[in-house]
Amino acid sequence: xxxxxxxxxxxxxxxxxxxxxxxxxxxxxxxxxxxxxxxxxxxxxxxxxxxxxxxxxxxxxxxxxxxxxxxxxxxxxxxxxxxxxxxxxxxxxxxxxxxxxxxxxxxxxxxxxxxxxxxxxxxxxxxxxxxxxxxxxxxxxxxxxxxxxxxxxxxxxxxxxxxxxxxxxxxxxxxxxxxxxxxxxxxxxxxxxxxxxxxxxxxxxxxxxxxxxxxxxxxxxxxxxxxxxxxxxxxxxxxxxxxxxxxxxxxxxxxxxxxxxxxxxxxxxxxxxxxxxxxxxxxxxxxxxxxxxxxxxxxxxxxxxxxxxxxxxxxxxxxxxxxxxxxxxxxxxxxxxxxxxxxxxxxxxxxxxxxxxxxxxxxxxxxxxxxxxxxxxxxxxxxxxxxxxxxxxxxxxxxxxxxxxxxxxxxxxxxxxxxxxxxxxxxxxxxxxxxxxxxxxxxxxxxxxxxxxxxxxxx
Length: 459
Description:
three-stranded antiparallel β-sheet, Rossmann fold, 14 strands, alpha/beta, 459 residues
């Protein structure tokens, strides 16, 4: 590897809770790092590449194929030995502080999951209580949960590959949210994940409420394609997409959806599937779809798709506000006050929503391989929450085939995923996906997108 682009070797001491470890904890971390060596290396490389635009995980892994990370136990705690790390993570030979914090988060979360949660006697990936407790423990260990704070966390979803006017709009909304004292949580990457955070920093600065919380929630399969943006000051890595989505919903006091592609559609279907649960009818969680005037058609298409597939009940679960950042922010601020009142009335915690019902089908990790994608049941006669869960898996698979390294390789080896179902439903999915392709929402930096899927009508 050209030494102009990498740091040949360096030693780093982690920050945060990893500074004060017992001998037992150090032993567990070093042992877990061996069990999860591949995951740890890939996630570490992703955060060392923080702030670099692009969603081609394969190219990044190839560029830094000589990168290595080792964890050693020393008297003062643990030490990270890095070889051939991206030079962009350093200034004058020293690692940038923010990246050092993100790297520490990688070690903390990956080793905690493999040394603590997976070693529990009651470990059971089919038990909804265990799964939710796992999400809670990972968030708590990452110091995301703060019982002293009143509700003020807005989860922002949206695409990593969006047009410049849409990105600027997300910044403006973030600025207005920051002026109103609201903190931001996103998927931690570029585009609509970076914009709200960047805008909020200015709003927080004007109101002298710094440091704000800019929480990035990710998982090993996506972090390489969506490296954390430089604004993220609290990063947590969940073990899979399902736990990542659950973490978003459990800590959110409100959700804003900006324009995006398949990943954003997955998130929309996930939250609507939950809100359609009879047990969640009284859950207070404001949901807003918003974008600039240029995105109006996008949200019309999303709205039509939701009404066609999930019905008017689902379409009534959200509010669409076009080209009005102030209205979005005022609405969210006022609705979060109602969330606070509801939590107080029902004696619920502010920092983690235990009461929202998440069915097991939304929690068990879905492996988007060719067999599983082909076997998805897709027909509108299904119960709406079940159809939402299956549609969510469709878009999750497309994200995998688009940007996750193992998914891209699988498509290369076996051809596109086969997605089959009811004729009218397949036409609706195809129309939505075609719109994403034409708007350049599927992948960054390319004018020619090759579909990783084929839509078939089997009924």
